[in-house]
Design brief:
Blueprint (H helix, E strand, L loop, with lengths): L2 E4 L5 H15 L6 H6 L2 H12 L7 E7 L2 E10 L10 E9 L8 H15 L4 E7 L3 H9 L3 E11 L2 E11 L1
Parallel strand pairs: 4-5
Antiparallel strand pairs: 1-2, 2-3, 3-4, 5-7, 6-7
């Protein structure tokens, strides 16, 4: 049984493990292997501690807790770009589940909790960015009611540039 709660500082190492292992599993064949291999839990945890300590950060972090601690993580906050839905919009910045537990509903549970909190903060819509080549993630978001809205941006990962697509949905 998995439940969702606010992330706290004690969760940082586990969240960094989930995020790094999630990248290394999800982006094989999309990102250079050297880029994925260079990712470390320790380096991610240092950045996450710094980010988590910012006094005026507007993002929120939730964790999915299983029998032995965090098994998923979602980060969300105000939308960083204009979207076509009127009203205030939130944005899902990241969502990751332990690679060995994907497909078990943990990501859906995290997304539902984030949507509920965004709605409670007065957001009327949610947006997110997803790599265009990441078909599995795109299907996941589409099943959750998101639709590509035509916006795209390029991101560089080492020697490769990949396109991200923006998705949005009404909350």
């Amino acid at each position: 049984m998995v439940h969702v709660r606010e992330m706290d500082r004690a969760d940082i190492e586990a969240v960094s493990t989930i995020r790094v292992r999630g990248w290394q599993a999800a982006y094989v064949g999309m990102l250079p292997q050297t880029y994925l291999d260079a990712m470390t839990v320790e380096g991610d945890a240092v950045r996450r501690r710094r980010f988590f300590s910012q006094p005026r950060r507007q993002s929120r972090d939730l964790v999915a807790i299983g029998d032995h601690g965090p098994v998923g993580w979602i980060c969300f906050g105000p939308c960083r770009s204009e979207i076509s839905v009127p009203g205030q919009a939130g944005e899902v910045y990241a969502v990751y589940v332990s690679p060995d537990l994907t497909g078990q509903g943990i990501g859906r549970k995290l997304l539902r909790a984030a949507h509920a909190q965004m709605k409670g903060q007065g957001f009327e819509a949610s947006a997110l960015w997803v790599l265009s080549d990441n078909q599995r993630a795109r299907r996941f978001y589409e099943r959750a009611g998101y639709q590509a809205d035509g916006a795209s941006q390029d991101d560089s990962y080492g020697e490769i540039t990949l396109t991200e697509l923006r998705y949005q949905r009404v909350l």
